[in-house]
Write a structure and sequence with these properties.
Layout lengths: L4 E4 L6 E2 L4 H4 L6 H22 L5 H15 L6 H9 L5 E2 L3 H7 L5 E5 L3 H10 L8 E4 L10 H4 L1 H6 L6 E5 L2 H10 L2 E5 L15 E3 L2 H7 L3
Helix pairs in contact: 2-3, 5-10
The structure holds (2S)-2-hydroxypropanoic acid.
Length: 220
Amino acid sequence: MQVTGLLFDAYGTLFDVHSVVEAGRAVTADPQALSALWRQKQLEYTWLRSLMGRYEDFWSVTESALAFACRQLGLQPSDAERRRVMDAYLTLRAFPEVRAALTRLHDLPSAILSNGSPRMLEAVVDHNDLRSHLTAILSVDAVRTFKPHPAVYALGPARLGLARASIGFVSSNGWDVAGAKAFGFQAVWVNRQGAPLEELGLTPDLEVRDLAGLAAALGR
Ligand code: 2OP
């Protein structure tokens, strides 16, 4: 695989969304269930809002998804507890191999392209001290719709100044990889969970287990 630049999805790819489980312990005896339902609703709401043309930023959508998950699970967190759980999204942990892999890939212009709001992304990048590894942090907020809308992916070539076909788009979210492939990127699926491929008629150009596998596949 030959690429001239890389675009990284953030949540689930660079950062572990389920590191909110610790914060969830304060509001439930089953924080894994809360984290899973919360993530599912968060993504559902991004797709529904995009289809309806009723954009709200990812922080707002994440708050709404948490409210739904708490109601569905019969949880009544206080405002302070809810704020603490939300704030965990600003300090998500990067997966253990991310820093070393980005260092191995340092010769390629690399940017984040994410559903996250600018504030959320700046916070989590700085929390993990990854800013020096990134050319840019690109948020869907610039086009007020969510992935997999092509207008989102178009932010990447515009900012990197590279042809889309020469850019590797890297995501752990199979549906995001399908969207990137449909847009014309070289699509890399970081299949951290060993999940089956989404049945969307779009096959990634490369499947790896983690970002170390990506660096190796790119000869770095
Ligand atoms: C992201 O855009 C898909 O939530 C994931 O970072």
